[in-house]
Amino acid sequence: VMGAVAGCIGASICFFISRKGGRPFVLRIVGRKELEFIDRWFERYGLWAVFIARLIPLIPVDAVSYGAGFTTIKYGSFMVATFLGMLPRAFLYAYLGELAARQIETMGMARAYLNAASLLILILIVLSAGIYSYRKIRDEGG
C-alpha cells in the first residue's frame, strides 16, 4: 500500500505541473503528433485510460500523469484511478522483492541466479504484453 501511496504522490506532482504548465509547454516537449495521440487516447478512454495505464508496467507512470494533467479529467477521479491502478503493481513489486530476498537468503547463489533469470523472463513476458496492449490502443486510436 505504501508503494501505491508514494506513486500517487509522484503522480500528483506530475499532474499539477502539467495542469499549471499548460499545453504549449507540453507541445514543445513531445510534439504535435504525440500530443494529438494523447488527446485522443484520454478523450476515448477517459478515467479507464488512467486505470488501465497504471496496470501496464511498460507505460511510464509520469507520462500518464502529465498527459492527464492537461486534459479535463478531474483530480479526484485521476487519483482514484491512479491509486487503484497502482495497487497491483506495488504488490507485485513487493512480492517479487520479497521472493528474491528469500531465495538469496535460503539458497546458494547458483540457485539465486536461476531464480533471477526466471524473474527476468517473467518481466519480459509482462513487458511484451504491455507493448502489445500499447500498440493495440495506439492503432485503435489513430
What attributes does this structure have?
mainly alpha; 142 residues
Explain what this protein looks like in three dimensions.
The longest helix has 33 residues, at 109-141. Helix 2 crosses helix 4. The protein has helices at residues 2-30, 32-55, 61-69, 75-106, 109-141. The chain has 5 helices and no strands. The relative contact order is 0.15. By secondary structure, the protein is an all-alpha fold. The model has no long low-confidence stretch (mean pLDDT 83). The protein has one domain.
What is the topological layout?
Layout: H1 2-30, H2 32-55, H3 61-69, H4 75-106, H5 109-141
How far apart the termini lie comes to 36 Å
What's the helix-strand series? HHHHH
The global form is elongated
Mean pLDDT: 83
Q: Nearest-angstrom radius of gyration? A: 18 Å
Structural class: mainly alpha
Total strands: the figure is: 0
Helix content: over 70%
Give the number of domains: 1
Write a concise synopsis of the structure shown.
The chain has helices at residues 2-30, 32-55, 61-69, 75-106, 109-141. By secondary structure, the chain is mostly helical.
